[in-house]
Every structure is written in structure tokens, then in C-alpha cells.
Amino acid sequence: MEGGFRKKVSKAGVTVVPRPETFAKATWLPALAKGLGVTMRHFFTNVATGKDIATVQYPEEKVKYPERFRGLHRLMLRDDGSVRCVACMCCPTACPAHCITIIPEETGNPNEKRPAIFEIDELRCIVCGLCVEACPCDAIRMDTGVHAVPTERRYEAVLGKTDLMSRGIQSIATQGGKNDWRDTEKTP
Ligand code: SF4
Ligand code: SF4
């Protein structure tokens, strides 16, 4: 006997649970009354004091996001307004959701490329922030404080390079490091 129920194991290995033995258990009335009691306690407490109400009157009232809140992505810019990204592929490699697509192109500078296409599928993104961590040149951030737009259409959730750059600003980081070793050291 366990918890008022007698369990039998059939030859086929199926556990047969008989009906509860008492009227109270059969109707689940005590459990229902207990659950209802908890609900009513919260209801009257909140009506009287409002202290446990966790909701806000959005959009008139907004909660303050923590400093490290991760919002929509943005691509950061160089001083001349061009994209900082050098298409190194670190972020799509680190992305566990495989939602970043980059097609690189030549820039004329043999030391770096740039993305011809840079897309992020925000419906697949799990907002882990690993792309930001992986970027070696402060080219991608999630500090916009902007929510992804709710949508059920994939094409509305895929952000392209222009959209990502529209939220970008100049970074205070120096592109390629403060001193480029190629300027001071001779290569063999
Ligand atoms: S936040 Fe995470 S899941 Fe989203 S794009 Fe970046 S690495 Fe991928
Ligand atoms: S890690 Fe940074 S530089 Fe590299 S592809 Fe991603 S955004 Fe561009």
C-alpha cells in the first residue's frame, strides 16, 4: 500500500492503479479546496495591499531594465560610418543557434574583409550574447535596449546589414588595436 493506493504489477509489466478508496480522494475535493484557498488568499491580499502584484501597466508604465539587458543586435560603425565588422566569422562560429549569416567581400585592404551580407534571424536567436563575446573588434552589440518585434513571419524577423547598422554608433575601441604591429615591426 502506498499513499492509500494498492498498486499491482501485471504480467506485462504495467502498473495497475485502482480507484482511490475514499470519497474525498476520489473527488479530489480536499486538494481543490486547498488550491482555491491559496488563490483566494493571494486575491484578497493583493486587493487589500497590492504588494504582491508583479505586473505593470505596460506600455504606460515600463520596468527599468538591468544594465546588462540584451536587446536587438546592432552593428557598430567606424569613424567614416562604414561597418566595423571584418567578416572574421567568429560570431557565426560561436552562435549556438546558427542564426547569423555572413557573406564576406574584399575591401581592397589585404588585411581585412567586410560583410557584403550580414543577417541575423531574431526568431532563432536565443539571446545568449555569445556573438558579442566572440567579436574581436566591438563590431556587434546587443545593448540597444530595443525589443525584437513580435512576429510570426520569418522574413520580418531576419535583420539585414542596413537594419543592424541603423542602430550602430561609433565605437570608442580602436579598429585593429591602438598600434598595428605591421607599422612598427618588420616581417621576415
Ligand atoms: S545572441 Fe546567441 S543565439 Fe543570438 S545571434 Fe548571438 S550567438 Fe546567436
Ligand atoms: S565576430 Fe565581429 S568582426 Fe567577426 S564577423 Fe562577427 S561581427 Fe564581424
Plain-language structure description:
- The structure is a single chain.
- The protein is of the alpha+beta class.
- The protein folds into two domains: 41 residues, no CATH class; 104 residues, 2-Layer Sandwich (Alpha-Beta Plaits).
- 26% of the residues lie in helices and 14% in strands.
- The chain has seven helices and seven strands; from the N terminus they run ββααβαββαβαβαα.
- The strands form three sheets. A three-stranded antiparallel sheet has the order 4-5-7.
- A hairpin with a 5-residue loop joins strand 1 and strand 2.
- The longest helix is centred in the first third of the chain and has 20 residues.
- Bound molecules: iron/sulfur cluster (2 copies).
- One iron/sulfur cluster binds next to helix 4.
Which CATH C-level class of the largest domain is it?
Alpha Beta
Order of helices and strands: EEHHEHEEHEHEHH
Tally of DSSP helical segments: 7
Q: Oligomerization state of this entry?
A: single chain
Q: Uncertain regions: pLDDT < 50 for 5+ in a row?
A: none
Which CATH architecture of the largest domain is right? 2-Layer Sandwich
Structural class: alpha+beta
Termini separation: 83 Å
Strand content: 5-15%
Bound molecules: iron/sulfur cluster
Helix content: 25-40%
Q: How does the overall form come out from the CA principal axes? A: elongated
Number of strands: 7
Radius of gyration (Å): 29 Å
CATH topology of the largest domain: Alpha-Beta Plaits
Estimate the mean pLDDT confidence.
Answer: 86
Please state how the strands of the largest beta sheet are arranged side by side: 4-5-7
Main beta sheet: 3 strands, antiparallel
Tally of domains: 2
